[in-house]
Design a protein that fits this description.
The structure is a single chain. The protein is mainly alpha-helical. The chain contains 11 helices and 4 strands; from the N terminus they run αααααβββαααβααα. It is 71% helix and 4% strand. α6 packs across α7 and α6 packs antiparallel against α8. The N terminus is likely disordered.
C-alpha cells in the first residue's frame, strides 16, 4: 500500500487495518522487487556496453521504449490475430520475437551511428552526443509515425491474485522478478564462463591487444549490443504488461533512472548494475510508503547522490588507472 496523491500523507491507521506490520513490510518488499527488476534489466544493458566500449549508450532507455512498442505490434497484430494463438501462447512467442527485433534495433544503431565514429577515432564526447541524438530520433520518429495518442497494451496473461494473510501477490509480479533474476544469472554465466564473455572482458581491459590475438572486435561489440538491447526489449514487454499504457517518451525517465542505478552499483560491473537497480527500487518504494509520491524522485536521487559522494566508483566499482 502506498500513499495516494489525494490524501497526501500516509494514513497510519489504514496501513494496519486488516494487516499486520509484517504483512505491510513484505508487501512493499515485493513491490520494490518488481520495480527494481525493471531498473535492473535496463541497467544491465547500460553496463554491458560501457564495460566493452567505455561508451554510455544514452539511447538505451529509448530502446526499452521501442521494445515495448515492438511487443505491442507483435502481440496485438502479428501473433494473436494472424495465427489465432491464445493469449498465453502469444506471450510465449512474443518474448523471443520481441527480444530479437529489439536486438536488431540496437545493432542497427551500433552499425550506423557508433561504428563509423569508433573507426574514425572520434573523441568519446562526440560518441556520447551521438547516443543522445539517437535516443531523440527514436522518440520523435515514434511520435511522428504513431502520433501522441497513448496505446493500450493487450492483456496476454490472465491476472491471478494470490493472498497470503495480508500479503497480495500477482502472477505477473512473480514473472517480472523471476525474469530479472534469470537474465542476471544467464548474463553472468556468459560473461564469466564462455569464450565470448572472456573476449568481452578482454576488450574492456585492452581493446588494442585483442585484435592482435585474432579476436574479431566488431563481432564482440555486435554481440554486446544484441544482449543489451534484447534485455531492454524484454523489460519493455514486461513493463507494458504490468502498466499497459504506451507513449513515445516512456523510456526517457526510466532510462535515466536505470543509468543512475548502474552508476551507483558500479558502471561496467554486471553485479553492480543488478543490485543497483534493486537498490533504486527499494529506495523509491520506501519513500512513497512514508511521504507523498511527489517526493519519490527527490529523495531517491538525493540518497543515490550521497552514495556516490561516499563511494565515487559505485558500490561494486573499482578505481581504474589509465596508462600514458
Amino acid at each position: 500500500m502506498t500513499a495516494s496523491p489525494a490524501n497526501g500523507w500516509l494514513d497510519i491507521k489504514k496501513i494496519f487495518q486488516g494487516r499486520t506490520a509484517v504483512d505491510f513490510i513484505i508487501q512493499n518488499i515485493l513491490n520494490a522487487l518488481q520495480w527494481g527488476s525493471f531498473y535492473a534489466l535496463i541497467a544491465l544493458g547500460y553496463t554491458l556496453v560501457y564495460g566493452v566500449l567505455r561508451l554510455i549508450n544514452f539511447a538505451h532507455g529509448d530502446i526499452f521504449m521501442v521494445g515495448a512498442y515492438i511487443a505491442f505490434f507483435v502481440s496485438g497484430f502479428m501473433l494473436g490475430p494472424a495465427l489465432g494463438l491464445s493469449p498465453i501462447m502469444t506471450f510465449i512467442c512474443a518474448v523471443p520475437l520481441t527480444m530479437a527485433l529489439t536486438a536488431c534495433v540496437g545493432v542497427t544503431l551500433e552499425r550506423i551511428a557508433y561504428r563509423p565514429l569508433r573507426r574514425k577515432g572520434a573523441h568519446r564526447l562526440y560518441v556520447v552526443i551521438t547516443a543522445l541524438m539517437c535516443g531523440l530520433i527514436l522518440e520523435y520518429s515514434n511520435l511522428a509515425v504513431l502520433g501522441a495518442s497513448r496505446l493500450k497494451f493487450p492483456e496476454l496473461i490472465e491476472k491471478s491474485i494470490w493472498h497470503f494473510g495480508g500479503v497480495t501477490i500477482t502472477n505477473l509480479k512473480v514473472i517480472v522478478i523471476v525474469a530479472a533474476v534469470a537474465v542476471f544469472a544467464i548474463l553472468n554465466f556468459i560473461v564469466t564462463r564462455t569464450k565470448i564473455g572472456m573476449a568481452m572482458r578482454g576488450i574492456s581491459y585492452d581493446k588494442f591487444a585483442i585484435p592482435l590475438m585474432g579476436i574479431p572486435i566488431d563481432s564482440i561489440i555486435v554481440f554486446t549490443f544484441v544482449l543489451g538491447s534484447a534485455f531492454a526489449g524484454l523489460a519493455g514487454l514486461l513493463f507494458a504488461m504490468s502498466y499497459p499504457i504506451l507513449e513515445p517518451f516512456m523510456g526517457m525517465l526510466i532510462g535515466w533512472k536505470a543509468f543512475i542505478a548502474a552508476v551507483v552499483g558500479g558502471i561496467g560491473d554486471i553485479r553492480g548494475a543488478f543490485y543497483g537497480g534493486f537498490l533504486l527500487g527499494f529506495i523509491e518504494v520506501g519513500v512513497v510508503t512514508v511521504f507523498p509520491s511527489t517526493y519519490r524522485d527527490l529523495f531517491a536521487f538525493t540518497i543515490l547522490l550521497i552514495i556516490l559522494w561516499l563511494k565515487p566508483t559505485g558500490l561494486f566499482g573499482m578505481p581504474q588507472s589509465t596508462k600514458i
